[in-house]
Amino acid sequence: MWKKMNKNTRSNLITYGIVIAAFIIMQVLISTGSVSSLLEGIMVPICIYVIMAVSLNLVVGILGELSLGHAGFMCVGAFTSAFFSKCMKDVITVAPLRFFLAMLIGIAVAALFGIIIGIPVLRLKGDYLAIVTLAFGEIIKNLVNVLYIGQDSNGFHFSTKDVMGLDMEPGGTVIVNGPQGITGTPQDATFFIGFIMILITLFIVLNLINSRDGRAIMSIRDNRIAAESIGINVTKYKLMAFTISAALAGSAGVLYAHNLSTLTANTNNFGYNQSIMILVFVVLGGIGNIRGSIIAAVVLTLLPELLRGMEDYRMLIYAIVLIAVMLFNWAPKAIEWREKHLSFGKKKKEAVK
């Protein structure tokens, strides 16, 4: 039965199997107390970065466009879902239902921004596209930092000056407090929910890649003029990939927002640094390689925490691992060795060659 399966199906099942096995192993280690509280605390962030890496790979690896504003979509999903959860905290007391609705809202708003940004931006190419998406991420972050939203018996109040500018009644609640962000968001995100979101993300991305639409998207990446010449709607498929990627980044933002008690928008979590870090996961894992993006995101997120006790050598070891991962994914000899020894389901003749 395994040999009769399609090659892509086998590869997808292996990817799912790796993720499920990793989750089961970590759950066993956590339940037996073999994992430190620090390591247990970064399980949700690992899930967030895996989702971000896989979703960005859809744009960078499958579509072939360089986007540097991926953290902006994460920011949109995080703040819209956190806003909803804080407003509905006393109205919807069932935490799973509230979180599910917050997830849908975060994904929908991030997808909407993906469409709005994608329509004009995807007409650009190369460096120009990268610069505009980078600007989008910075604009979103800065807009959040100047936004003040409060609520009282008269409804919602908005201001871009300060809290006093909200002009609320006594006893009103400040929901979004400018640079101080949103405080008191329900911490509903768990490692299990993150694991489920990773599987959903993989299901969407892998099925898209292996579908007719996915082949159209890859044909645009390989040769746009040739794709247009055979009647492929370039704008439609580029916008499809960009919007799906933005929606998945929004879901990662929802997990991020509901894993913290205070949500703020700064350079490290929603700015340029975050976008570049996600891009590093994609590049080191292999552009277009979904499984590689997962492994790179997990390893490079765990590594700084595991090496925290080695203050003198931590950055040196981190740099060595980065170089090793890059060589493993990009060096011709390493690629040849992987194809020979790590090729699942290939015929013996092909393996011998």
Provide the descriptors you would attach to this structure in a database record.
single chain, ABC transporter involved in vitamin B12 uptake, BtuC, disordered C terminus
- Could you please say which CATH topology applies here? ABC transporter involved in vitamin B12 uptake, BtuC
Q: State the end-to-end distance.
A: 25 Å
Q: Which residue ranges are poorly predicted, with pLDDT under 50 across at least 5 consecutive positions?
A: 344-353
Gross morphology = globular
- Portion in strands: 5-15%
Total number of domains: 1
What's the CATH class, please? Mainly Alpha
- Percent helix: 55-70%
> Per CATH, which architecture?
Orthogonal Bundle
Q: Average pLDDT, to the nearest integer?
A: 85
Number of helices: 16
* CA radius of gyration: 22 Å
Q: Would you count the extended β strands for me?
A: 5
N-to-C SSE string, H for helix and E for strand: HHHHHHEEEEHHHHEHHHHHH
- Helix-and-strand structural type: mainly alpha
Record the strand order, biggest sheet.
2-1-3
How would you characterize the largest beta sheet? 3 strands, antiparallel
What does this structure look like?
This protein has 353 residues and is mainly alpha-helical. It has a single domain, classed as ABC transporter involved in vitamin B12 uptake, BtuC (Orthogonal Bundle). 69% of the residues lie in helices and 5% in strands. The strands form 2 sheets. A 3-stranded antiparallel beta sheet has the order 2-1-3, covered by helices on one side. A two-stranded antiparallel sheet has the order 4-5. Helix 1 (7-31) runs antiparallel to helix 7, helix 3 crosses helix 12 (272-285) and helix 4 crosses helix 10 (234-257). The radius of gyration is 22 Å and the shape is globular. Mean pLDDT is 85; it is low at 344-353.
